[in-house]
Hints:
The protein has helices at 10-21, 33-40, 51-60, 70-74, 97-109, 126-138, 157-162, 174-184, 196-227, 231-239, 260-273, 280-302, 329-339, 352-358, 368-372, 385-388, 392-398, 413-418, 434-440, 444-450, and strands at 2-6, 25-29, 64-67, 79-82, 115-118, 144-147, 166-171, 190-194, 310-314, 343-347, 363-364, 377-380, 403-406, 422-424, 431-432. The strands form 2 sheets. Strands 3-2-1-4-5-6-7-8 form an 8-stranded mixed sheet, with helices on both faces. The chain has a 7-stranded mixed sheet with strand order 11-10-9-12-13-14-15. By secondary structure, the protein is α/β, with parallel strands linked by helices. It has 20 helices and 15 strands.
Amino acid sequence: MNVCVIGTGYVGLVTGVCFSSLGHNVVCVDHDLDKINSLRCGVVPIYEPGLKELMNKSTKANNLIFTTDLEEGMNEATIILIAVGTPANKDGSANLTYIKRVALEIGQYVRPGMTIVTKSTVPVGTNKKIKQWVSFSSGHQQFSIASCPEFLREGNAIKDTLEMERAVFGVEDVQAELALRALHKPINPTIIVTTIETAETAKYAANAFLATKISFINEVANVCESVGADVEALARVMGLDHRIGTSFLKAGVGYGGSCFPKDTQAFIRIAAEANYHLQIVPAVERVNHEQRYRLLAKLKKSCPILAGKRIAILGLAFKPHTDDMRAAPALDIIQALLSEQSSTIAYDPVASDQAKRLLPDVVLASSWQEAVKEADAVLILTDWAEFKSIDLEELKVLMRDSVVIDGRNLFHPEEMKQQGFYYDSVGRAQVDGRLSQKKEAPSPSLTAQTGTH
Ligand SMILES: NC(=O)c1ccc[n+]([C@@H]2O[C@H](COP(=O)([O-])OP(=O)(O)OC[C@H]3O[C@@H](n4cnc5c(N)ncnc54)[C@H](O)[C@@H]3O)[C@@H](O)[C@H]2O)c1
Ligand SMILES: O=c1ccn([C@@H]2O[C@H](COP(=O)(O)OP(=O)(O)O[C@H]3O[C@H](CO)[C@@H](O)[C@H](O)[C@H]3O)[C@@H](O)[C@H]2O)c(=O)[nH]1
């Protein structure tokens, strides 16, 4: 099948690469010339495991090309996939500027029989507007539109696409359904054919539900801290009930990323415009916002005056296996630390380039060891495997004071206590091993003077 993908961001590039790897002929179009030039040279502008290798395989096989020229992209195509951004407006609604521009551009080249599919996350009614915009600029309506929202997760995007569990085809006619079926045939996911409105709403509902699970477990974690329960064990107890499920029950510093924060906000606006005032989703957002600042409160418990203190941040990306820092908890937390005049130094295995742009005032380290050296406290914000395997003895030797505030529950409180750390995490007991370790291991000279304790 000849496919044109418009937008080569996280969704468009992964989609183009994966469908080309399955034997479709794909042209990826982006108006960003630098991006297209680097893709043509085999350089992937984002960090996504496995993407570069798969992309280079497809380009070598001549199944995948990159261009800035939409006419060239649509020349042979029978199906057009729109994957441009839909960022949030100031009021939380989805900004459709890029979508509208693309629709008007597509209208210049659309031919009878083509199917135009929206992969971008768009509010209900947008695909119908796309139909109007494309027809306005083409002067005809001999094409089909469809909503096929994307459910991939960053960091796992290739697998999520090639082994997609389900796909929703929101269609207006049989032509669109057949085109989408042909496109997905090599993947063979469970397919749900719906109206366009159902498909559009399903994407927001799915993200809002996942965000709800996270805020729910974070609230439970906050209760655990007050009643002496352990959220990690509790989440397992809850999750092993199949009706609940184990995924998205990881308590922590709250969700970030390019999707949950903006899509929950947009969903609230979509519902309000339809005269329904969502009650759960705004609470989910509030809990998520407060969760970031609870971590700062934990830091202040052990370090009440932050001015002049050296605070090391481990993890900047909103989750592991990505360099994406959009709406990452690290952004708010670091801003708060800087506003209290702490000296902040951060390390992330892959997000440093993004951080240079988004946090120009933060010193960036090139290793975790460099970041924690002489630190008064360490804050863990991303659950990278590299942090989980940190040598705790080395960490303790490098730090000035052994305070670890863990927003991702990477370590066990008891182990941290034994290693001599002050350790506070989410939904578990706060421990302080600094004093006990000093008592247990007095210096030899002190022992000689005062006898054993
Ligand atoms: N990032 C994710 O994990 C994810 C997952 C599911 C759904 N989505 C949704 O998919 C959409 C895209 O998200 P993203 O993260 O890939 O965005 P992105 O910002 O990474 O990429 C968008 C790309 O579109 C290009 N673009 C914009 N206007 C264009 C035009 N007129 N012609 C050609 N190219 C144009 C930009 O240059 C950019 O490269 C959004 O609606 C998002 O909500 C994202
Ligand atoms: O139990 C959990 C699971 C996730 N998170 C956090 O939630 C955020 C989002 O994580 P994840 O969903 O894995 O990443 P995304 O790439 O943002 O993917 C979400 O957003 C995409 C864009 O809409 C959807 O396509 C995906 O299905 C949906 O999972 C991250 O900050 C995670 O740290 C938690 O705190 N606890």
